Amino acid sequence: MLKNGSHQGFTLIELMIVVAIIAILAAIAYPSYTQYKIRTNRTDVQAEMLRINQRLQSYKVVNHSFNNATLDNGTALQSYPLTGTAFYTVTLAIDADNQGYLLKATPIITSIQNGNGEVCVNQDQQRYWFKGGICSSANLSNTSNWDGR
Questions:
Q1: Number of domains making up the chain
Q2: pLDDT, tens only, 95-133
Q3: Nearest Cα residue to 41 out of 115, 109, 91, 112
Q4: Which helix H or strand E contains 141, and what residues bound it?
């Protein structure tokens, strides 16, 4: 026999309210987290491209041109990041006169970055990124800070 008022625990209604609140919070948080990851991955590849750009400038000082310049792996193409899951393919295209280049990061189709636009920079530090955009020498800008403007 139960004593009056000695019930312990939660009712099913109380548990369902807690589950509903958690589901609402998850529905709000997950898209924000995904966008955060996309921005972080793009910012990381932009920083890596600036490091590569500095090394290419040093290469030109020593060799007086970009002829035979390569990325860190000894080729004109590499995945980024170098370890773990790759989000971008970074390519180096040397101009015909060997005095300039276009360094471009293209999102890998199967990655979270797919559809987030290419990122590029050239020998004059001209940059371009626009969500859904494609890099070319024509859309580079001295004023771009890679924020899509």
A1: 1
A2: 999 999 999 999 999 999 988 888 899 999 888 887 777
A3: 112
A4: none
